[in-house]
Amino acid sequence: MTWILFVGLEPEAVDFSDPALPPGFNAEKIHAGIAVAMRQIGERGWHADLCLIRPDETAGPALESRLGAKVYDCVVIGAGVRLPPRNLLLLEVLVNAVIKAGPGTAIAFNTRPEDSADAAARWLKVG
User: Fold this and answer.
1) Which residues form the domain of 30?
2) What is the pLDDT of residues 37-86, one digit of tens each?
3) Looking at residue 16, which CATH number applies to its domain?
4) Which of 80, 89, 105 shows the shortest CA–CA distance to 2?
5) Are strands 47-53 and 3-9 parallel, antiparallel or unpaired?
6) How many domains does the chain have?
7) Whose CA is closest to 96, among 64, 70, 123, 122?
């Protein structure tokens, strides 16, 4: 059984005034994208859990807690976490949390929610 952990920002915690985000981006669009990602992961026969984090000091411990509760084959970190320049430290915290709490777990990055399953497949080598 293949398990994927999809990590993204809590939509309500996103600063939509950030000029690095696309115009018109909002929490509703994030929720819709997450639903698509989770559905597509399931369509591949994989199981997925969602880990929504806040962009603060709770992010790393929250991810470590999830990784300590279950063994995942791959962690997909969403583009909303890694693309805005102001999230660089957050991205580093999350990558290091995976290394610490989920040693051997593949780490993948999507470019948008709709390619999350493809991102995981690159590292799972199962297409």
Assistant:
1) 3-124
2) 999 999 999 999 999 999 999 999 999 999 999 999 999 999 999 999 99
3) 3.40.50
4) 105
5) parallel
6) 1
7) 64
Compute CA distances 126 → 2, 71, 74, 117, whole Å: 10, 18, 12, 11
Task: Write out pLDDT tens, residues 94-126.
Answer: 999 999 999 999 999 999 999 999 999 999 985
Question: Do 73 and 105 contact (CB within 8 A), yes or no?
Answer: yes
Q: What whole-number distance in Å separates Cα of residue 26 and Cα of residue 48?
A: 24
Compute the distance between CA of residue 23 and CA of residue 20 in angstroms, rounded to an integer.
Answer: 9
Q: How many CA atoms lie within 13 A of 81 on its CB side?
A: 27
Count how many Cα atoms sit within 13 Å of the Cα of residue 43 in the half-sphere of its side chain: 12
